[in-house]
Amino acid sequence: MEVHTIIGSLGVTLLLVAYILLQFQLLKTHSLSYAILNFLGAALAMWSSYLIDFMPFVLLEGTWALVSLKMMIQNKKKNSYEYKNRELQSEPNLSNL
Questions:
Q1: What is the number of domains present in the chain?
Q2: How is residue 24 annotated by DSSP?
Q3: pTM of the model
Q4: What are residue 52's phi and psi, to 5 degrees?
């Protein structure tokens, strides 16, 4: 089996796993796990398409990877914001002393 076939097969498998888990409601659309599976799958599929010089799929999978990366960054920012708010809410209010 050629390298580009292995890379592409792994990428497509990750994309399908993400889709199946989403359909069975084992992942949520905006979860970090879903974004990571999509990013890795699309990036590998894009790389495989690049290796065989199939530019339409390089464009498709590259766009998919970029959108997934944006989703990962937004998810990280949201989780960071929520974590900071939890910390602020759990600090004791010393102004009443």
A1: 1
A2: T
A3: 0.80
A4: -100, 10
pLDDT in tens, the chain (97 residues): 999 999 999 999 999 999 999 999 999 999 999 999 999 999 999 999 999 999 999 999 999 999 999 999 998 887 776 666 666 566 555 555 5
Q: Which residues contact 74 (CB under 8 A, 6 or more apart)?
A: none
How far apart CA 74 and CA 18 sit, in angstroms, is 18
Give me the domain span that covers residue 13: 3-91
Counting DSSP H helices and E strands in the chain, the numbers are 3, 0
Q: Is residue 97 part of a domain?
A: no
Residue labelled with tokens 């997934």? 68
